[in-house]
Amino acid sequence: MTTSSTTTTSSTTPFPGIDTPAGPIPHGAPAWNRQRRSQMPSHRYRDAHTRVEVPEIPRQWPSRRLTGAPLWVPVDLRDGNQALAEPMGPERKRRFFELMVAMGYTEIEVGYPSASQTDFDFVRLLAETDLAPSDVTIVVFTPARRDLIERTVAAIQGITNPVVIHLYTATAPVWREVVLGKDRAALTELILSAGRDLLELAGHLPNVRFQFSPEVFTLTEPDYVLELCDAITELWRATPERPVILNLPATVEIATPNVYADQIEYMHTHLARRDSVILSVHPHNDRGTGVACAELAVLAGAQRVEGCLFGNGERTGNVDLVTLALNLHAQGVDPMIDFSDIDEIRRTVEHCNRIEVHPRHPYAGDLVHTAFSGTHQDAIKKGFAEHRARAAAEGVSERDLEWRVPYLPIDPADLGRSYDAVIRVNSQSGKGGIAYLLEAEFGIALPREAQIAFARRVQAHTDATGAEITAAELRELFESAQLG
Ligand SMILES: CC(=O)SCCNC(=O)CCNC(=O)[C@H](O)C(C)(C)COP(=O)(O)OP(=O)(O)OC[C@H]1O[C@@H](n2cnc3c(N)ncnc32)[C@H](O)[C@@H]1OP(=O)(O)O
Ligand SMILES: CC(C)C(=O)C(=O)O
């Protein structure tokens, strides 16, 4: 990294390059906007609007609200699995599948049967045992190649559950030119030919439905992707009774989430046979906005969301289904999935993926219900006291009462967590947090003056050690302070 001492600022706007609604501020470069030009080779990249036409629509999504859960489809056993250094073997696949069933998922992508014997055998296991409850739809994934489609159809023979066969092909210009070597017409023929193969090999099976994903949807010309989707729903004779799933992936995130929402709303409002299509999305997280993309896509008309638990998946991952569902829960909307033992869910997923969940991961990380800082601890302590008092006054159980404890977006108890780690003490803490810990752990309730005096002792200790002080150490310090 090199640094430059040159201060470059625009003489007309404090936000060069940002098109602010208020327009440029006219009085030249203010001192608070002096930033140095970086040495990053940003000129090598093009913005999304240069790379693909983004449809201009009279968009409705910004004024809509999320009022219900979409259809959830975990793809951990396929998209998540293909991103692991050590793909899951039979034991890990089975354990992950059982977890997802126990949590309440009723549609699960279980693998890519033509990719490996393990994937094929897992689908056979589902065919030959009662591992999958009868209301769980089994999704299998295949590219548009006849030999691989045959292998996929062989894998599902005898399954009595509902089955979805999911066909994919990349459709964006760079993939057409560089990867597949096909122009638009030739690619259309490849996809329709695979669609015909599926009809021939599995169209007669009453429990089977079809899904199509134009991979890299977000970089595909809107007229072309619409034409392809309409052609496939016509070929597969989509009806409301036997709908086709059209899954529009952000295979690699390319833009701010509002762009994805516009692209989805365009498809939602222009697709033929709309009542015979389940509109699905499959965001990845390259820009760190997978969750926002999924949420805005649902506002824009998507009915189904594919993703992975805790956001495993290629590169930066698939969209995180845990965060999406618990975001709904935190808005008072039933996520339709059971997260009442988040730590058991996390342990199982960590075991199966062999990847740890980050301590700051929304809702599930070790530190997400913990405050170290004084003013936050003070607010939480007061919030807990108010919660208890309100529950008693209203004669409602604390677990049922409306939640409004500051700094805790949801009650950790909803996820099966205790309040033990909510307040932890270090040099950033204050008297409120220290008093909370002493009272919660040892029943020692200090009057305000004593809290202030003891907090000074604790501050001196934590400043000297630079470390966290545990509840037991706090008590020791308290007792020595009493003696001294
Ligand atoms: C965005 C996604 O998640 S897509 C899913 C990606 N997942 C995986 O690839 C995991 C499983 N994949 C595999 O096991 C293998 O790649 C297989 C079995 C599918 C194919 O294996 P191989 O025959 O060895 O081919 P290879 O892996 O090199 O794949 C590239 C070939 O597939 C073609 N191809 C790529 N996507 C598709 C598609 N959707 N439909 C048809 N052909 C495709 C490429 O053009 C290339 O063909 P070419 O060899 O004629 O140039
Ligand atoms: C093909 C689709 C579903 C996919 O996995 C992706 O685009 O990431």
From TrEMBL:
Keywords: Acyltransferase, Transferase
Organism: Leucobacter rhizosphaerae
Region Disordered, annotated ranges: 1-50
Gene3D superfamilies: 3.30.160.270, Aldolase class I
All residue ranges annotated as the Pyruvate carboxyltransferase domain in the record: 70-343
Catalyzed reactions: 3-methyl-2-oxobutanoate + acetyl-CoA + H2O = (2S)-2-isopropylmalate + CoA + H(+)
E.C. numbers: 2.3.3.13
Name by which UniProt lists this protein: 2-isopropylmalate synthase
Keyword Transferase: yes
